[in-house]
Design a protein that fits this description.
Blueprint (H helix, E strand, L loop, with lengths): L2 H12 L6 E10 H12 L2 E4 L7 E10 H11 L2 E6 L2 E6 L1 H49 L14 H5 L5 H11 L3 H5 L5 E6 L7 E2 L4 H18 L5 H5 L14 E8 L6 E10 L5 E10 L13 E2 L15 H11 L12 H7 L11 H13 L3 E4 L20 H10 L3 E4 L5 E5 L2 H6 L4 H14 L4 H10 L9 H8 L14 H9 L2 H8 L4 E2 L5 H12 L5 E3 L14 H4 L9 E14 L16 H12 L16 E16 L2 E11 L6 E2 L6 H15 L21
Parallel strand pairs: 2-5, 6-7, 12-14
Antiparallel strand pairs: 1-3, 3-12, 4-5, 6-8, 8-9, 9-10, 11-13, 13-14, 15-17, 16-19, 17-18, 18-19, 18-20
Length: about 725
């Protein structure tokens, strides 16, 4: 329904002329609350369907027709109004939303094509420059000129391959050019797709000329290998590149494209993998493909407009007292060891995201300042990942000006200014993406409430939240909320953050399945529900998938068994099964001055973390690690259950994921670092010995991702 239709519908319902007018201002709040307040003021029954009520609106209107306000709310939320008797219900406009999904997809396809074209153009430039250098070298050799090392004539191995001029990089580019950009554009964050000239059911086909490209790559690689001299003694001392070896016969080729990065918005790893007839990996070369700086790097969406900056003068934003206090607290997070200091009233608000929306602080002030520049009433639907201000960890502490907000909106990275003569209308630049990462405020409040009650959330608390919420690594404010207010979620000490998909999988297991696994039983993959299978498929085939091959006969061999689309070529095997192994260790939770548990990366300290902390106080090699350590004068002692899940895909091949479950008795006493229980001290001493035997500064392999001192199952 268009704006005129909404106005006529509203006029007929109100039965009066002129229509009902409203004056209403609210900071960021759910659509359902906006409609409740508008309905209360106008005596009109306004409601929203469940899929619409969670949109986050900022409204500032004065003496405006209700019909106009309703129309703009529908526009920014991609909705429409349906009348049911005296009830006006905001519902999703499926036609508009399908258009937005297609627009997001088209934008992504365009980004992929530009990235591949840019890579190809750069390579052609490198090859042209390389050809000139070779011509100069040949001319010098023909004239019999012998000179000292000339960087324009004599190339090192790194210089020759820099910029994608080596055989493997050229091949990767050619293979990417032969793939339908749509197939690449469909790879989501955390996703992975595998292409091959002879694909399995879980792979896709490479372009028609792929076989020729790969054959040419093998030939050129062999020529390069023959042309590169073996490193001299001096070069070996300088860790020069080793002499390349010919590839040999290839029986299977794969191009693996994965997008694991949530920050740099790129295909982080594009790997060309070649296997011999025995399935052994004989060649592996990688590349990256940046796609832009933001989801909307191509510019504003079709709904957005670029407008001239309102004035050359600077207009300081008038931030609320809560926004100022929050910004000051965020600026002190690093200095306080990733712990945020909030005054009691602000803390009360921040810890209730269902009542005081995370976007109701700085972001609200900034979008209202933008509307004042435009000089028009405001209707805005804010995405969770608009972080111009607010929950940014490294935000510049200087005062912001409204023109900065205006420039940000004009750039169209996260939000866009919808063209409208009478209103300032803001909506997400990529509405489809914005809806996919929208945080359930009530679920977040429930999780934070569990923390307030118990001090540390249980595994069940975290899993329940994960089932209803997007991965915080995909963007938005939730990562910062979890880091600062939920001990142990974003980073369990030095053990790393638990897989979000594994948390979801655990949350979707029935109580009977959980208890059966705890008793040593097995769960068949063939008996999993659709949601459970979908989650396990992401863990098996996704960007972060790591298959474990336990083969004592060939412990160092890398072969097809590490590739999930080869070892499980038709999907999860119905004969696969799941096992669980549980180990317990003590854990300490540092306490804040007010008696609450500390949050941040070191909010839960097991034997590993305690050993590192003690060593950092004793050793100069790792004294840098002591910066920002939590105070250890008051520690609650509890139990950490380490749940190690093994998903058996094939004989000797599995996926392994670990979750931690923390329990603290309500009456657990507080102890100091020097008054830990005897068993805990023994565990710490054992880990310290392992640390001392490790390379200096490596913290027992922890800094390199090794698992040398973690619990052994």
């Amino acid at each position: 329904m268009n704006l005129a239709g909404v106005c006529l519908l509203s006029l007929g319902a109100f039965g009066q002329e002129p229509p009902v007018r409203v004056t209403y201002t609210t900071r960021a709040v759910r659509t359902s609350e906006v409609l409740r307040q508008l309905g209360k003021q106008t005596k009109v029954d306004l409601r929203a369907t469940p899929e619409m009520e969670g949109e986050i609106l900022v409204v500032a209107v004065k003496d405006q027709p209700l019909s106009d306000v309703m129309a703009r709310i529908a526009a920014v939320t991609s909705g429409e109004w349906k009348q049911d008797g005296s009830i006006f219900r905001l519902v999703a406009n499926e036609t508009v939303r399908r258009q937005e999904e297609r627009a997001d997809s088209a934008k992504r396809v365009a980004e992929v094509r530009r990235a591949i074209k840019s890579r190809s153009t750069r390579e052609r430039g490198q090859l042209a420059a390389f050809a000139k250098i070779l011509a100069k070298r040949k001319a010098a050799q023909k004239d019999g000129v012998k000179t000292k090392f000339d960087p324009e004539v004599d190339l090192t191995y790194d210089e020759m391959t820099f910029g994608g001029t080596s055989a493997d990089q050229l091949a990767i580019t050619s293979l990417l050019q032969g793939i339908d950009a749509d197939a690449l554009a469909q790879v989501e964050l955390g996703g992975r797709v595998v292409f091959s000239t002879s694909p399995t059911r879980t792979q896709q086909k490479l372009g028609d000329d792929a076989a020729g490209v790969i054959d040419a790559c093998i030939r050129r690689h062999s020529e390069e290998a023959a042309a590169i001299p073996a490193p001299t003694g001096a070069e070996r001392d300088q860790e020069a590149a080793p002499k390349a070896t010919p590839i040999g016969q290839v029986s299977k080729d794969l191009l693996v494209v994965r997008q694991a990065g949530r920050v740099n918005h790129a295909f982080d790893d594009i790997a060309l993998k070649l296997y011999d007839s025995k399935g052994t990996l004989v060649y592996n070369s990688t590349a990256t493909l940046p796609l832009g700086d933001a989801p909307n790097a191509a510019g504003p969406s079709p709904q957005g407009t670029r407008q001239a900056i309102s004035t050359r003068q600077t207009t300081l934003i008038e931030y609320s007292s809560d926004s100022k206090a929050l910004t000051a607290s965020m600026n002190g997070v690093m200095a306080n060891g990733f712990r945020i200091k909030l005054n009691p009233e602000l803390r009360r608000k921040v810890l209730q995201p269902n009542l005081y929306d995370p976007l109701s602080f700085v972001q609200t002030d900034e979008v209202m300042a933008f509307a004042e520049l435009r000089g028009k009433p405001l209707i805005a639907d804010l995405p969770d990942d608009w972080e111009l201000g607010g929950m940014e960890l490294f935000r510049n502490s200087q005062a912001r000006i409204a023109q900065d907000v205006e420039r940000n909106i004009n750039e169209g990275h996260s939000v866009v200014d919808v063209s409208d003569d009478a209103f300032t209308m803001i909506k997400p630049a990529s509405p489809f993406h914005s809806r996919s990462i929208r945080v359930d405020r009530q679920a977040l409040a429930t999780l934070i409430g569990a923390v307030q009650e118990k001090g540390v959330p249980s595994l069940e608390d975290l899993a329940e939240y994960a089932v209803h919420s997007p991965d915080p690594a995909e963007g938005g404010f939730s990562a910062m909320y979890l880091l600062l207010f939920v001990p142990g979620e974003m980073e369990e000490g030095l053990s790393g953050r638990a897989s979000w998909d594994m948390l979801r999988f655990y949350g979707r297991l029935s109580p009977d399945a959980r208890s059966g696994l705890l008793r040593g039983g097995k769960v068949s993959m063939g008996n999993l529900s659709m949601d459970q299978r979908t989650t396990l498929e992401k863990m098996t085939y996704g960007a972060d998938a790591q298959l474990i091959v336990d083969d004592a006969r060939r412990p160092a061999v890398v072969d097809y068994r590490q590739e999930p689309t080869e070892i499980a070529p038709s999907g999860l095997p119905s004969g696969g099964y799941i096992e669980l192994n549980v180990k317990h260790e003590m854990v300490a939770a540092p306490q804040e001055a007010d008696g609450s548990s500390a949050a941040g990366p070191l909010s839960l300290l097991g034997p590993n973390e305690m050993a590192v902390i003690k060593l950092s106080k004793e050793s100069k090699d790792v004294e840098f690690f002591g910066d920002g350590l939590p105070p250890l004068s008051k520690l609650r002692i509890g139990d950490r259950s380490i749940l190690k899940f093994t998903f058996h895909l094939a004989p000797q091949v599995s996926v392994m994921e670990t979750l931690g479950d923390h329990r603290f008795a309500a009456n657990s006493r507080l102890v100091s670092e020097n008054d830990l229980p005897g068993d805990f001290q023994k565990q710490i001493a054992s880990r310290m010995e392992a640390l001392k035997k490790s390379p200096p500064g490596n913290l027992g392999g922890l800094l390199s991702g090794a698992d040398t001192i973690h619990p052994v199952f």
